[in-house]
Amino acid sequence: MAQTIQDKPFLAWLKQNQKTFPGGNLAISIPVQGGYYSDNNALQGYSYDDTLVFGTMANALRAEFTWYEVFYGWWINWTDLKVDGITVNDEAKISEHSRAEVIRLTGILQNRLDDFTESWARQMNKMLILDGSQDAKQCPGLTAVLTQGTTSTGSVGGLSRASYTWWRHRAAENIATSPELQTLTKKLRSEVRQLRRYSGRPNKVFAGSKAIESVEAEIFEKGYYTTEGFAKGEKNDLGMAQVRMQGVGTFDYDPTLDDNGMSNAIWMLDSRRLSLYVMEGEDTKALKPARPFQYLVYMSGLTWTGALCASQLNCHGYYTVAA
After folding, report:
1. pLDDT tens by residue, 210-235
2. Disulfide engineering: 207 pairs with which of 148, 245, 266, 268, CB 3.0-4.6 Å?
3. Nearest 5 degrees, angle CA 296-CA 297-CA 302?
4. Burial tier of 230 (Cβ tally within 10 Å: 0-12, 13-18, 19+)
5. Dihedral over Cα of 247, 250, 256, 262: its sign
6. Is residue 259 part of a domain?
7. Looking at the domain assignment, is residue 102 inside a domain?
8. Could you tell me the CATH number of the domain that includes residue 232?
9. Looking at the domain assignment, is residue 1 inside a domain?
10. CB 169 within 8 A of CB 316
């Protein structure tokens, strides 16, 4: 039995809302606008034959996200199959076999396939969280779009965050926690109002284990485990329901955050404004390459082409809990 399979809620969430694009360009182009004609204070009073001033509106911009290609493949040699009592012809097809061979086939190939699909999911979830610095040809993920550290410098989608102050996500790092003073939960509640300020609708929270435990500690301090306190021994639960923020949703624990040093991180996200784009016909496309003439092996693999894109940043938030 598999011993180390973990949930991958971030990947599942992105897949639920993913979009497609047709290709044809090296980048996915998304129209965005943060400036308006009203910023020029163009409204003017007049009387009689006062000279009127007319202006032009040219505030639409385009954020462009380069798409990336990734590949994951595996192989099994004919000797391994023969040891398990299975024969393969030169077209890499299983030959006629007995019921006993079917049983053996299911064992060895099912194990390889289970390993491959789980490994693919792990690598995709990790890639879509990390910032792309692990491999220049991999798709930059969540921490590239909603960066850690400063939000006022650098570019996202080719647009400068220094030039366009509206093209920045919310962020607060090293938030102190205090079960007595409720500092963390108060801060997160106040952030929801700011994330909704510009028509944002954050509807999902992903967090590491330390961050969730810190939120739970503050909830426990001011709450009760049961509605009856300690009156009835059989109802003195030590646990609590999944943490949920009103108007946003549940705090989903993604173990991949812990695995990559982000156990103290929290992301509040708006699914309408952060999307996984996949090229049409290129979403986990299966490959069955021909056998190299000098090797007796069977090969298979998957390819994926896409990018993680944002159409708005100030509706998303990144927060960390102090050590």
Report:
1. 999 999 998 887 665 555 554 555 55
2. 266
3. 155
4. exposed
5. positive
6. yes
7. yes
8. 3.90.1690
9. no
10. yes
CA torsion 248-257-64-73 (nearest 10°) is -130
Per-residue pLDDT tens over the stretch 235-277 = 555 566 778 888 888 899 999 999 999 999 999 999 999 999 9
| Helix ranges restricted to H, 58-98 | 78-83
**Would the pLDDT of 2 be above 70?**
no
Regarding predicted confidence, which is higher, 77 or 317?
317
Structural domain that includes position 182: 9-35+61-321
pLDDT in tens, 52-99: 988 888 889 999 999 999 999 988 888 877 776 677 666 656 555 565
Which one, of 251, 309, 266, lies nearest residue 18 by Cα?
309
Q: Residue 317 pLDDT > 80, yes or no?
A: yes
pLDDT of residue 50: 93
Q: So what's the pLDDT on residue 102?
A: 61
If you average pLDDT over residues 172-177, what whole number do you get? 95
pLDDT for 173 equals 95
State how far the Cα of 229 lies from the Cα of 248, in Å rounded to an integer.
29
In whole angstroms, give the CA distance from residue 301 to residue 289.
8
Within 8 A by CB and 6+ apart from 228, the residues are 235
Sign of the four-CA dihedral 179, 318, 278, 67 = negative
> Per the structure, how many domains does the chain have?
1
Closest CA to 70 of 137, 4, 170: 137
Positive or negative, the Cα torsion across 154, 136, 18, 209? Answer: negative
* SS3 category, 80: helix
DSSP 285-319: EEE-PPPPTT--EEEEEEEEEEEEEES-STT-EEE
The answer to the question of residue 240 being in a domain is yes
- Rounded to whole angstroms, the Cα distance separating 125 from 252 reads 14
